[in-house]
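Appendix B. Chain record.
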Amino acid sequence: MEEEKSKDNVKLDLKSITEQQTCFDKNWILQLNKQEDIHDFICLICKQVANNPMEIDCSQHKNMDESLVVGENCLKQFLSKNPNSCPIEPHDNCSYSQSRLAKRYINELDVICPRQFQQEQEQQQLQISTQRGHEEGETHGIVSCDFKGKVKHVNDHLEHSCFLQIVKCWFGSFGCNHTCLKSAIHDHLTSNMKLHFDLVIKSFDSLQQIIRQYQVSLF
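Structure tokens predicted for this chain:
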């Protein structure tokens, strides 16, 4: 199947590398997909599923049969260290374009919540290190997220509906440094009403003192 490409090479802003997302964890994607589903979309640089896939279309590689796809962020990092070079083989003037068809395909892949995946990985590592299994009750009471959806919907899920999202206390600006799962914030607020009230009063008193000191300095 022929890839659909943008007409012009995409200009990559090398100054915003840290602001871009890395490629998708292959093991996360494979939770609900088969290896053959992602075979043609593996980033040549990091070997994970390409995020914002770019296709390398240098004339030097026109006879290669394999998919020449890299993640946008991986390509940015490579070019920042190897200007004008190519991640496939050494030569100047690397040519690349955004692979819109690959991006649409990847965006339609079904996935579980990435936070849930990370939590499960951490639990497995804990079981290995402690040599204890689920039957001993290690995971009892652990909050989980049952999200299953498309890759394109993951960011919205993480920002608005994920049960595993970590949030700060609403009274953080008054001095409460508590953080917890989004699903537990209501319990924290209701069980610490006096603490939060005292923090607000303390902040108000401090503000009044600053105002009085400022007024004194004016006269």
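Further analysis of this model is presented in Appendix C.
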